[in-house]
Amino acid sequence: MARLILFNKPFGVICQFSRDGDRPCLKDYVATDQVYPAGRLDTDSEGLLLLTDDGHLQHRITDPRHKLPKTYLVQVEGDAGAAACAELARGVALRDGPTRPCRARIVSEPDWLWPRTPPVRFRKRIPTSWLEIQLREGRNRQVRRMTAAVGLPTLRLLRVAIGHWRLAGLAPGEWREVDMPAAEGRRVR
Hints:
Elements: E1 4-9, E2 36-37, E3 46-52, H1 55-62, E4 70-77, H2 82-90, E5 93-94, E6 97-98, E7 103-107, E8 128-135, H3 142-149, E9 154-162, E10 165-166, E11 175-178
Parallel strand pairs: 3-9
Antiparallel strand pairs: 1-3, 1-11, 2-3, 4-8, 4-9, 5-6, 7-8, 9-10
């Protein structure tokens, strides 16, 4: 039976089990190295990372052809409005081509959110906003590039869901193994 681990990746942790300089890595948090990340989160992003020992499941999670939604909470610099959300939802032009349409909406700062270490920079005269963005693709630093393209630089980025798997209940650095429904472990064609 395939293993699946939900991990709340803290800010500053690299998404690999081997060391890269002095930066913390998965080995510092997860008690097994018999699993591999299904996708990546940038070092300066936080939140849900799935780890599995099943190559077919890993492929299903990461391959955009399977259109598995990934949901992010994004703190941006500036006052996000309906026009910016509509532009994000339609898809924005990036250097590597236009993004697919996505879901984007303004949300309140979550009451369950932990403080980030180091803290997000605060500027008294510049407001911040929170967005929820759900993508079905995953390019390098895509959410950050999308928000920048609509004039809202990302200050903090948390992935809160991948498909039906949720971050809920995991503090930064915590992980738990979950049972997989039988359909999840089936071979992908």
